[in-house]
Amino acid sequence: MPEARGALLVLLYLLALRALVQLSLRQLLRREYLENITAVGPRTVGSPENEILTVNYLLRQIKAIESESSDAHKISVDIQRPTGSFSIDFLGGFTSYYANITNVVVKLEPKSGAKHAVLSNCHFDSVPNTPGASDDAVSCSVMLEILNTLSKSSDPLQHAVIFLFNGAEENILQASHGFITQHRWAESIRAFINLEAAGVGGKELVFQTGPENPWLVQAYVFAAKHPFASVVAQEVFQSGIIPADTDFRIYRDFGNIPGIDLAFIENGYIYHTKYDTPDRILTDSIQRAGDNILGMLKYLATSDKLAKSFDYRHGNVVFFDVFGLFVLAYPARVGTIMNYMITAVTVLYLGKKILQPRNRAINYMKELSVAFGFTLLSWFSTLVTVLIVAVFISLIGQSLSWYNHFYVSIFLYGTAAAAKLILVHTLAKKFYYKNRNEQYLGETFFDVSLLVWSVALVLITQLGLCSAFICAMWVAFPLLTKLLTYREFKQKGATIRFVMIYMLGMFIPYLYIMYLTWTIFEMFIPIMGRSGTEIPPDVVLAAFILSSTVILSSYFLNFIYLAKSTKKTLITLTAVFGVTLILVCSGVFFPYSSDSANPKPKRVFLQHVSRRFYGLNGNLVKSDSGIWINGLDYAGISHITPHIPELNDTIRTNCEDKAPLCGFPWILPVHFLLRKNWYLPAAEISPTKPVHFKLLAKEQMSWDSTKLTFEKCVSLHFLLLINPVHTVQVVSWRWNSCC
């Protein structure tokens, strides 16, 4: 027996070691994919690096995977080079035309074939001047490894899995449109998973699902080993607050296909910069993403629901992860019922206090109204105070002081908000509520918070927003806690016991709100470094910190009235605020960092351009050449001038109001976000292949229309933006290249 037990232990050890070795080899292979793709360099659409080198590398790896695949599967590969156009309402709306872009498409299916398919999408192109490791080479690396894993498995698939490596996403979603509207395999797709990035590594967040199709969220709940998802992120992203979009929109709007959108969100400071390199993406992040996506694809490729996905298109779903441990998901209609039930219980709780003898009821209503007024006054005065500080910081040129030092924003705006809230209620307690019963005041202000959150719950539910679950949580847990501590609250001398039970009951909602708040901070703060010159980031962040402070303090206002004194708290908060304000005004906190381990660079966009302005008759009106400079954040180039004196406000240029996009060759119509431009005169550009673009003919047609004929001969990467004046409409066009 001992020998047998020892042999069994050795066998188990060897099996575990083998599994560990296989896992390590897969991780090495996945990282090798990532490093080889990024070694090509920046992969802009139309460049040899994107259209030839990366495509050839992908084809070689796919060929190697195919040679080792199981007999249970069949692999088909197709190179698509679509040409087409589409209109999109992103960034104010425009029509996009593309020609001969590249898609590498792989279909993994059972030997006998499959009628239906699930799509996995990544893009291998990048913006200029970045290796694009996170956006989106890492996703393509993960997809290659998933293809490798699935193809070697002897377990048969019920449906096909289509892997789309698309080569033109950064040109605003062109390759995905070319695939879903023109490829012969597109008609078989019943669901998709889109892999994106808004940061470098970390956890991948599910921030869009559907439309509708709650079964897809349930599939994620069942199959994802490391869940990280939030319907709040979905509703924030789809509101348009974040000026970004993904291929999800194309598959949803042009393919009428439901799907799931995932993106890395950590460390967005170096997103779309030269620092987006493979060494900054942890192996754990890649493994985590691979586990989740592999689990999802295996689940969908063997699910009976995939074939009938349109039959399960019924309503939205509320979903959110609980501290990354698991996901709670339920139909939105169930959430609506729960929200109204919670509101009904609140009405019963407050109604019991109103349905008292007449004098007591009137007195309670009066006290509740006064307390509500003081609460609104505290919120309004805090808002005014914090915004005054934020505007002042912006006006003196010290905005973004917290960009490289997050704690500064808390010490500056968080302390100001907390101090003002406490001050208003302390003054109310001292002058208006003098000699009032402290327990009664504490209960009254608790009821005010409960009433406010109940009203918010009803309003947000009526708007059809799934994020109403936060309000539901913020009503249900405090109310339940209050009911459990009612006797302790009324008993004198039981204050410590009451506080302990109260804090314990509020622990879960407070912990979740802080978890959600941190996730939002992690997404939004890096975005402030690339949000344009017109949006004051300090005002935005101050408003967000104020909102967080109001939410987190709402059920602790009653403790101000229960406490004997708030003097020490106010002095401490005021001192921290004052010291931080002085340090910020003196410029101690430089916004950016060149730390090689954790860079937080300032984004400056420089383009050497030659401009020619023509009149309506085709005559040359003006021409010049120069370095066109954009500071992508609110600070403009103020931090650069001390180091490069030539770049100063004397070269700032005004918008050419009569010219399209202010007279600058914007790649995208984002001029309304970047109204501040600097233009340094420079020698004319001498490209290796001269640009030839000429108006050949102008012909008056019927129905008050004009036909313009142009001739162009340019490099592979050519962008033509047609922006007619308000009284003119483009009705049709035809494209023929002269070379």
UniProtKB/TrEMBL annotation:
It comes from the Eukaryota. One of its GO terms (biological process) is proteolysis. Residues 103-295 form the Peptidase M28 domain. It is found in: Endoplasmic reticulum membrane. Residues 599-733 form the Endoplasmic reticulum metallopeptidase 1-like C-terminal domain. Its main location: endoplasmic reticulum. Keywords: Endoplasmic reticulum, Glycoprotein, Hydrolase, Membrane, Metal-binding, Metalloprotease, Protease, Signal, Transmembrane, Transmembrane helix, Zinc. It is a multi-pass membrane protein. InterPro entries: ERMP1-like_C (IPR053973), ERMP1_1-A_TM (IPR053974), Fxna-like_M28_dom (IPR048024), M28_fam (IPR045175), Peptidase_M28 (IPR007484). One of its GO terms (cellular component) is endoplasmic reticulum membrane. The chain crosses the membrane at residues 322-350, 370-394, 406-428, 440-461, 467-486, 498-521, 541-563, 570-592. Its cofactor is Zn(2+). Residues 1-26 form the signal peptide. Residues 364-585 form the Endoplasmic reticulum metallopeptidase 1/1-A TM domain. This is Endoplasmic reticulum metallopeptidase 1. The lineage of its organism: Eukaryota, Metazoa, Chordata, Craniata, Vertebrata.
